[in-house]
Amino acid sequence: MATRRLVLLFDGTWNKPESNTNVEHLRRLIATRDAAGVEQLVNYIPGVGVASGWVHLLGGAFGYGLSGNVLRGYRRLCETWQSGDDVYLFGFSRGAYTARSLAGLIRKCGLLKTSADGRIAKSAISVAYDFYRDTTIQPDDPAAVDFRTHHSVEIDIHFIGVWDTVGSLGIPDTASWFPYARSRYQFHDTELSKIVKYAYQALALDEHRADFAPAVWTRNPYSVKPGETLTTKKIEQIDIEQRWFIGAHADVGGGNDRDGAGRKPDPLPELPLAWLQQKAIAAGLACDEILVPEIDANAGMPRNSYAEFMYGLYKEFKPPFDRTLGNGINEKVDDSVWQRWMTDASYRSPSLAQALARAVVLMSFENVAAPTPVTGARPPTPS
Predict the structure, then answer these.
(1) Can you give the C-alpha Rg of the chain in angstroms?
(2) What does the pLDDT look like over 134-184, one tens digit per residue?
(3) Which alpha helices (DSSP H) does the chain contain, by range?
(4) Residue 374, helix vs strand vs coil
(5) CB neighbourhood size of 24 (10 A)
(6) Phi, psi for residue 382 in degrees, rounded to 5
(7) Is 177 exposed, middle or buried (0-12, 13-18, 19+ CB in 10 A)?
(8) pTM
(9) What whole-number distance in Å separates Cα of residue 40 and Cα of residue 37?
(10) Direct distance between the N- and C-terminal alpha carbons of the chain, in angstroms, rounded to an integer
(11) Best label site of 37, 96, 284, 327, fewest CB within 10 Å?
């Protein structure tokens, strides 16, 4: 059993506690101690761009502040972690990318050893980050092993839980015309490694902005053996799952309730939140309350983020984009999606329809109770 649990939660772009995303919602659910008295230290980090003025604009458009949030989480762990602690990382959107990048930093550099006063010098953090940024050195290379041996403590990441990581570099591809924005974050390592024990990602079926394509976990191309594929489950991974839910980006990560215009509370985020909470609890996290979604939570209307983005200008320049299922490790479609598909003829996710046409195996039947099919519905066949 862990002696303590260290929990870091990274919110999405422009999100802070009052945004009421699933990151903040989960923070409120986590207990300070479990039933056995094990302490759980929780640290919430707002998303990039929460400041006003140019920082707000640059954070949203180009990811300004992302590296700072990675290092904020890194310093927190370096100065807090003790032998026997379990580390849990959560994030939404760019915060999901931040959590995954932090895991990559720890994989390559370990946690820096503290000075006698328990602190880490800013110069030491800078040295570690510069070393992390050097893409010519891989985590298992002799130079990286030597760095960790002399400067760090090697640890495992017990749990990573994220909602809809978008953009291969943690920034929407709308910034692709600004080379500096992309090169600035090209070095970040967000793939899974052998130090991660549990990894889960909730994904949005109904997000149609191409610039918000999901960053799913795949195998490292260099670790794929003959007869394996990028979607084969990693042997050293204890548990990994990526699950698709009804809704657009913010329907999965939460925060739609704060957009004004008289919108009713969005029930869709409850489903991916409850799923990730259950996974975290199964991995040891203690919560004061277990979220039980409304029985008809899957009946919520997906946000039309494609039509609304950039005040409607985005759709004038970019065609709608359908996400592709089946490109990542161990992808599943949540039961709530099948229930909606079978009972509501108005819900036909193009991404799911295309996956069914390609006979992609993405079934999950833990709780499906054989609903009455609607006319023209195609029941999925369990694998």
Answers:
(1) 21
(2) 989 999 999 999 999 999 999 999 999 999 998 644 444 444 444 444 445
(3) 22-29, 54-62, 66-80, 94-109, 122-133, 142-151, 179-183, 249-253, 270-282, 305-308, 314-317, 335-343, 350-357
(4) coil
(5) 20
(6) -60, 145
(7) exposed
(8) 0.86
(9) 9
(10) 35
(11) 37
CA dihedral (42, 8, 276, 351) positive or negative: positive
List, as one string, the DSSP characters of 56-109: HHHHHHH-TTHHHHHHHHHHHHHHH--TTEEEEEEEETHHHHHHHHHHHHHHHH
Helix axes 94-109, 66-80, angle to 10 degrees: 50
The token pair that represents 368 in the structure block: 């499906």
Contact 99, 10 (CB under 8 A): yes
Nearest to 364 by CA among 346, 339, 344: 339
Query: Length of the chain in residues, anyone?
Result: 383
* 305-344 residue pLDDT tens: 878 887 788 888 888 899 999 989 899 999 999 999 999 9
Is there a contact between 258 and 271 (Cβ–Cβ < 8 Å)?
Answer: no
Distance CA 66, CA 49 (A): 9
